[in-house]
Amino acid sequence: MCVATVGKVVEIRGKRAVCSFRGVLREVSISLVPRVKLGDSVVVHAGFVSEIIKDTNNYYHDLVATDALAGQILDAIKRENTKMHHRHVRLMNFCGSHESTVIRYGLRQLLPENIELVSGPGCPVCVVPNEEIEMGIKLAKSDNIILTVHGDMMRVPTGLGSLEEIRAAGADVRIVYDINEAIQIARECSREVVHFAVGFETTAPATAAAILEAGGISNFSIISSHRMTSPIIQCVLQNCEVDGVIAPGHVAMITGLKPFAELNKQFKIPFAISGFQPIDILHSVLNILIRINEEKPEVFNQYTRVVNSGGNLEAQKKIEQVFTVQDDYLRGFPKLAKSRLVLNRRWSKFDAEKKFNLRLNEKKRGQPDDSFCGAVLQGAMPHQCPHFGTVCTPVNPLGPCMVSQEGPCYASYHNGTE
């Protein structure tokens, strides 16, 4: 009863709000603090928001800066840094949750100046090309169709506007927390329900499991924007100077260590499979530095409490049962081999692209959009964008990196960092 936690308000519903607790969404009451606004960081106790955190930067920074274990790890990082004579080291994370933690807890400010942390293309909403979102927009404009999406997809701008804009104009676009909620909507109505499925290997098993359990539902289908992690990491490492990789622990939870071992063998730089707490990331940085100094570019599994070497075999099996892998584009990337998961022939009745004869705009495939997101997804810092914080803000975003809570621009803007 006495344990309170901190969440970020992502949706307001009258006297209640939906809060994100590091990605876990829960509905809470705001009746005690009715002044709560979208985007506020709040203290939640027993299902009620009890206060708004006024200075989130200092709040989170102090949690780490005053932690004894964090202090020990930072001291060890300084010792390893001395061994390498304070040379510049560039480490890249490939998960939006990692980047959110790095920014929220001020980890860049706690590390030596010569150790540079850069974000990669780990935001699942950010990598979805506009052409795939536009397919959903075109469908949603049909009277007989309900389009279900995750909240972060709503405000991504495209050449056809955003899903939020067409909903305001009368389209039936609904925010759901998972694919099962979308299937339930289909079971309870006669209209066609199309779910926009996004994410990497972390969320693909849930989509696969739901499809396997959907049975004879005839009015449900998906647009699959699921992506594979390895081809994206491979492309970035081929084009960026990186000394070590902080790898996504939740992807490794599903895939196991094999994909990262193969990348490690190809690029011969240290990989740390990392958890998502600030201590996890600092521990991963330390172990990468140790391996740089020892000239042992190995894969280090920092997230052993969750990740085993073989991964989740049942989840892998479900992905193989339902999906096939095809070459495709991502936002800001060229066409990557075996990068997109689409429903295989056996489950094609749930494939909205086939069901509604949808066609991607091939002329636009792989073409840059008007935002700086493609560069940010490959290691550029948000403040390097000439529009960051001025023309491009969370209220008027030019691209998904300023929309999604896992987007590096969104995180930098809300935490007042560069």
From TrEMBL:
SUPFAM superfamilies: HupF/HypC-like. One of its GO terms (biological process) is protein maturation. Keywords: Iron, Metal-binding. One of its GO terms (molecular function) is carbon monoxide binding. Pfam families: HupF_HypC, HypD. Belongs to the HupF/HypC family. This is Hydrogenase assembly chaperone HypC/HupF. It comes from Thermincola ferriacetica.
